[in-house]
Amino acid sequence: MNKKIFIYFFALGFMFFSCGKNNEIKNNSSQPIKVGLVFDVGGRGDKSFNDAAYKGLEKAKSEFGIDFEIIDPGDGSDRESALRKLAAKPEIGLIFGVGFIFTDDITKIANDFPDKKFACIDYSINPDIPVPANLIALEFKEDEGSFLVGAIAAMFSKTGKIGFVGGMESSLIKKFERGYIEGAKYIKNDINILSGYVGVTGEGFKNPSKGKEIALTQYQNGADVVYHASGLSGIGVFEAAKEKKKYAIGVDLDQYSEAPGFVL
Questions:
Q1: Residue 133 belongs to domain with CATH number
Q2: Of the candidates 86, 67, 251, the residue with the CA atom closest to the CA atom of residue 176
Q3: DSSP-assigned beta bridge partners for residue 225
Q4: Are residue 191 and residue 92 in the same domain, yes or no?
């Protein structure tokens, strides 16, 4: 999926064309706009969500001439301090948090730094908590893309069973699962969907061994196509697909190279 790259163009436009004198970001034309970004759980090298974010930054640098600074908080426990560190730098005008797990932290930092712009991918909207004026919440219709994935899986399945592997069991990843199920049943109403989650915390996005274990179980129980929305944990799903010579479907980026011949 290329949606993550387009986020950056949209957010950069948000920075360049901010309305109102108080919200304007001043930039010396001789200096490039500088963007800060904090990675989600799993960090760079996940071949999925975080790598898509970095690819977007590189594309923005190439096409718009921006400069950027990134922080990988490792296990994610230092998200707030990482955001604060970037926001405190006078040369950085826009700061990204990559993933819904940033919601609370980036809301707090945006309130603490009203003169800076912030953007959060997959921000979790809470109707009881207003989104700061200097923070843009980037949300998507994950269920619609997953609906198409489910339809494809159902059309390719020969056994009448398909699987889903989610990373962190959460409302966001449930949207991927729900769309996948609806798409599959639109094609074959009696299809059987086997679902499993790697975990209930952010650790669920960076455990390839558990992802492989879940996928192997689903293949052994008759699934011949497994779709994952699990970040780095999805690498294990592709390993299982190769081992069982079944199909897998990736997320966020083109992941065909992870298991050539076994990725739809």
A1: 3.40.50.2300
A2: 251
A3: 247
A4: no
Give residue for tokens 């959060």.
Answer: 120
**What are 87-121's pLDDT values in tens digits?**
999 999 999 999 899 999 999 999 999 999 999 99
Q: Are residues 60 and 157 in the same domain?
A: no
Q: Give the closest residue to 2 by CA, choosing from 156, 119, 145.
A: 145
What is the total count of domains within the chain?
Answer: 2
The answer to whether 257 touches 235, Cβ cutoff 8 Å, is no
Taking the C-alpha atoms of residue 39 and residue 79, their distance in angstroms, rounded to an integer, is 9
CA-based radius of gyration for the chain: 19
- Is 82 found in the same domain as 185? no
Which residue, chain included where needed, has tokens 């489910």? 150
Nearest Cα to 241, choosing from 231, 255, 23?
255
Q: Which of 22-26, 41-45, 211-215, 216-220 has the lowest mean pLDDT?
A: 22-26
The pair of three-digit structure tokens given for residue 45, joined into one six-digit string: 């090298």
Q: How far apart are alpha carbons 81 and 149 in whole angstroms? A: 37
Name beta bridge partners: 118.
95, 135
pTM tops 0.90, yes or no:
no
Q: Does residue 22 belong to any structural domain of this protein?
A: yes
Share the mean pLDDT of the chain.
88
Where are the alpha helices (H) located in 188-262, listed in sequence order? 208-220, 234-244
Distance between CA atoms of 226 and 150, rounded to whole angstroms?
10
Residue 9 CB partners (closer than 8 Å, separation 6+): 56, 60
Yes or no: say if 241 and 226 are a contact pair by the CB < 8 Å rule: yes
Q: Is 48 helix (H, G, I), strand (E, B) or coil?
A: coil
Which residue matches tokens 């707090």? 108
Distances (CA, A) of 43 to 74, 125, 138, 235: 7, 24, 19, 14
